Amino acid sequence: MVEKEEQSGHADQIQPEEMSMDMNADENIAGTHHLHDEMTEDSVLDKLEAEIQEQKDKYLRLYAEFDNYKRRTSKERLELVQTAGKEVIQSLLEVLDDADRAEKQLNHTDDLKQIREGINLVFHKLRSTLQNRGLKEMQSIGTPFNPDIHEAITEIPMPGNEGKVVDQVEKGYYLNDKIIRFAKVVVGK
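^ thats the sequence. predicted structure below, dont judge the formating
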């Protein structure tokens, strides 16, 4: 009976060789620790501190990248604003050259018909150059008053033309179908 107690007592005890055995509950993952082994408090803190540092590094890189993006886009925007009118001005240089030639002719001739033709050619070239750049004149006279595109300067009594534009003080313009200047008009009442 003593032998049975020793054997049964022996069976309940775990031998040191058995403790070092590689154990893991998930058969697909190799491991040297049992699932119920607790990690030490220091190793948990070290792991959390490493994760925090990694997140800080990601944040700093992202912040620096965004700051560079803002700087780059503001620089590009500034360059775009500074050079936006370059093409229009270059296209108007031909008109300016024609105006200079017309001015010379004005000083050297007294033929009004020739002067008028030269000036009309300059005006026509100016209008066509601006139209090629997307400028379109607003047609207002005879149309109903529209506060979205017209600016009423005054109203005058006009039987039969109530609520219609009867005169235009200043033309309105579209640039690529967007209003860039409202027409200043006189409205009939």
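The domain at 136-189 is CATH 2.30.22.10 (Nucleotide Exchange Factor Grpe; Chain A, domain 2).
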